[in-house]
Amino acid sequence: MRGEGLRMSWNWLTFWRPQKKLTEWQVVMYTRHGCHLCEQAWQQLEQAQQCYHFALHQVDIDSEARLAREYGACVPVVVINGRVRFRGLLNPVLLKRLLEGASAQRP
């Protein structure tokens, strides 16, 4: 198994966690047609959304020249509350930490 890393799914990371709500959070994923990493990231974000209930939107960068210039070959790009958090591969462990940290800070 040389050169193969451990791959974890969002389900594996969260199956034992209670549901928490981050309803005021806005998550936007910038994508483009034919991007297989985008498809994987979208699935992970949808699974996380089921657990944390944040607003989730998808934007095709090819719909606007400015977005295509800004994000180009970096897709998927995940922006959480206006801040770029992931470019390229979405890391489910870091996403979980972000969401868990945010839900722990809620009153």
Task: Write a compact overview of the structure shown.
Helices cover 40% and strands 20% of the residues. It is α+β, with helices and mostly antiparallel strands.
Question: What spatial order of strands do you see in the largest sheet?
Answer: 2-1-3-4
CATH top level?
Answer: Alpha Beta
What's the CATH architecture? 3-Layer(aba) Sandwich
**Relative helix content:** 40-55%
General form: globular
The rounded distance between the terminal residues' Cα atoms is 45 Å
Radius of gyration: 14 Å
Sequence stretches where pLDDT stays below 50 over 5 or more residues: none
Give the CATH superfamily. Glutaredoxin
Provide the fold topology:
Elements lengths: L9 H5 L11 E6 L4 H17 L2 E6 L4 H7 L5 E4 L2 E5 L4 H14 L2
Parallel strand pairs: 1-2
Antiparallel strand pairs: 1-3, 3-4
Task: Explain how this protein is built.
The chain is an alpha+beta fold and about 110 residues long. It has a single domain (about 30-105), classed as Glutaredoxin (3-Layer(aba) Sandwich). Helices cover about 40% and strands about 20% of the residues. A hairpin with a 2-residue loop joins strand 3 (about 75-80) and strand 4 (about 85). The longest helix is centred in the middle third of the chain and has 17 residues, at about 35-50. The model has no long low-confidence stretch (mean pLDDT about 85).
